[in-house]
Amino acid sequence: MTVKPPFETIVTEHGPTVLRVCRVILGVHDAEDAWSETFLAAMRAYPDLPATANVEAWLVTIAHRKAIDVVRAGKRNPLPVQQMPEESSGTGVVGSDDTGVWAAVAALPEKQRQSIAYHYVAGLPYAEIAQILGGTTDAARRAAADGVKNLRRTYPGATLKGVTQ
């Protein structure tokens, strides 16, 4: 019989990955809120999670849903009048400390951006990405490949975990 680790261990082990995914999907400003909401929801559901479940994929699925909630809520909120310049924190950076790559990722179409985040940042296989996004494994793989192709065209210096130019 497999025993589930304490929830605190889950947060420590998978928290950074979930935060990076939230940052890629939502940007720096909304990522921490989505991260918190993800782990609040996960904490409530954790007792019912089977001990054999893929915890990381489960958390990324929750983060995906929380990110959708943030995007929907953002559409109902007024737009800020003035935007402050953003400084790079160096955390969650895919290939370098250059924030230009994040602007290039943010400019990608939604499916491409999400596929890249879930595969290259969270390390999920395409089959699990397909389940999260709703579609086929081939579609998830194609979205990630198209996203990388678009990144290389718009931001030639972009690298994603072992994927080089």
Number of helices: 7
**Radius of gyration from CA coordinates:** 16 Å
The biggest sheet amounts to: none
Which structural class is indicated by helix and strand composition?
mainly alpha
Topology as H/E string? HHHHHHH
The tally of strands reads 0
Helix content: 55-70%
Which residues sit in consecutive blocks of at least 5 with pLDDT less than 50? Answer: 88-97, 161-165
Oligomer status = single chain
Distance linking N and C termini: 45 Å
**Mean pLDDT rating:** 82
Give the overall form: globular
**Share in β-strands:** under 5%
InterPro entries: RNA_pol_sigma-70-like (IPR039425), RNA_pol_sigma-70_dom (IPR014284), RNA_pol_sigma70_r2 (IPR007627), RNA_pol_sigma70_r4_t2 (IPR013249), RNA_pol_sigma_r2 (IPR013325), RNA_pol_sigma_r3/r4-like (IPR013324), WH-like_DNA-bd_sf (IPR036388)
Keywords: DNA-binding, Sigma factor, Transcription, Transcription regulation
Pfam families: Sigma70_r2, Sigma70_r4_2
Family: Belongs to the sigma-70 factor family. ECF subfamily.
